[in-house]
Design a protein that fits this description.
Elements: H1 2-15, H2 17-33, E1 46-52, H3 57-65, E2 72-78, H4 81-89, E3 95-99, H5 103-108, E4 116-119, H6 124-152, H7 175-207, H8 214-242, H9 252-274, H10 282-287, H11 291-297, H12 309-315, H13 320-331, H14 341-363
Parallel strand pairs: 1-2, 1-3
Antiparallel strand pairs: 3-4
Keywords: Cell membrane, Membrane, Transmembrane, Transmembrane helix
Transmembrane segments: 12-33, 179-203, 215-241, 253-277, 284-302, 344-362
Organism: Sphingomonas turrisvirgatae
């Protein structure tokens, strides 16, 4: 029974061009298409303008530091703040640096030199990136001025503060490196769900009210488990390496156990969902518009602390919420199975719950040994 269902499932997939494209073609397409939008990771060489109203040696030294920035590129030296504002409004510049009159005198008196930074709030990421780069240059100039002040007053110069930033998991510090690892496992979930929904819909259309034998049902589940594990191996073994995304080189056994738990819950949930629809297209129509809400509910891009408690609890009924936490934690952060025991337990309960629902819907009354899956003709 199990072997028959396992083989018949692959035959049905090969005979159904739509299911084959969903299960194989879409995963490959997404692995190359989706990361392309984030290939730059972080904005660089953003246009910045400078207005030097002080026209002193210190102000010119500060402006001279701007062209050395990776995040920003000095495109013009303007004569007034109004002109700088016009450049920002015309989108010719992402940020403006304005050095007021008296900047150098305040530093020489032992005071603080004030510098004004302005950015375009309509493009938050571009503006914040440019301003952070400019702020780093200003901070470096400020430390140099502080040492000069200490030496001029005869006091021993204090050691300069050295800030070393070492990101733990998102080592590229890019948006793509943060988002795509979680999206990859969502893609695996969605392709398995829609492909299995298509196949289950075909089974229901052909068998009518007859029930699917339990062995055939388990064989179908095992077939999609194999497909899902192949998808996980493809993304974690090739795509993350090819796209140069951070990965923690997780232990093979740990990654395998995590993948089995995630894919098992996904397959069980897909079978349970598909059992409530009579036609093969209905689950796809319902599920295809839910990718973004499901990803937000996973807590990877939107913190769970900012989500209503009842919605967080409800999201635990989706295999994606514990599944993405588990897979990203193991593959990107190097977590152990013991550290992810809560997610594993969540997935195990979902597998049991949805597996029982699928069994009750498909195999509660066992029919004869006739073939119920579509044959490859």
């Amino acid at each position: 029974m199990i072997r028959r269902g396992f083989i018949a499932a692959f035959r049905a997939i090969l005979a159904d061009r739509t299911a084959a494209i969903l299960l194989v073609g879409s995963a490959i397409l997404y692995s190359f298409f989706y990361p392309t939008a984030y290939s730059g990771e972080v904005p660089t060489r953003l246009p910045v303008v400078a207005v030097d109203l002080d026209r002193s040696g210190s102000s010119r030294a500060l402006v001279a530091k701007l062209p050395a920035l990776q995040q920003a590129e000095l495109v013009a030296r303007l004569s007034s703040p109004q002109e700088a504002l016009a450049w920002i409004e015309a989108r010719r510049a992402s940020a403006a640096v304005i050095i007021p009159d008296g900047y150098e005198q305040n530093i020489l008196r032992g005071g603080q030199g004030a510098v004004a930074l302005y950015g375009n709030g309509a493009y938050l990421l571009r503006s914040s990136t440019a301003l952070s780069g400019v702020a780093a240059a200003i901070g470096a100039a400020g430390r140099e001025a502080g040492v000069d002040q200490a030496q001029a007053s005869g006091a021993p110069a204090a050691p300069a503060l050295s800030l070393i930033q070492r990101p733990l998991f998102n080592t590229r510090e890019g948006y793509g490196s943060s988002v795509f690892p979680g999206v990859a496992f969502l893609v695996i979930h969605q392709t398995l769900l829609m492909g299995l929904a298509l196949l289950a819909g075909t089974i229901r259309e052909r068998q009518g009210k007859r029930r699917l034998p339990a062995g055939d049902l388990l064989g179908i589940a095992l077939a999609f488990l194999v497909i899902g594990l192949c998808d996980v191996a493809y993304f974690t073994g090739f795509v993350f390496w090819f796209q140069d995304y951070p990965r923690a080189q997780a232990d093979a056994i740990t990654l395998f156990v995590a993948a089995v738990a995630f894919i098992s819950a996904t397959v069980a949930g897909s079978l349970a969902l598909a059992s409530f629809f009579r036609t093969r297209e209905r689950p796809i129509q319902l599920w295809i518009v839910t990718s973004v809400p499901i990803f937000f509910l996973s807590g990877l891009s939107w913190p769970s602390e900012a989500t209503p408690a009842w919605l967080v609890a409800l999201s635990r009924l989706l295999p994606t919420t514990p599944g993405i936490h588990l897979m990203v934690g193991v593959n990107q952060m190097g977590a152990s199975l013991e550290e992810q025991s809560g997610e594993l337990a969540n997935l195990a309960l979902l597998t049991l719950l949805y597996g029982l629902i699928a069994y009750a819907r498909f195999s509660a009354r066992r029919v004869g040994a006739q073939e119920t899956l579509p044959r490859n003709r």
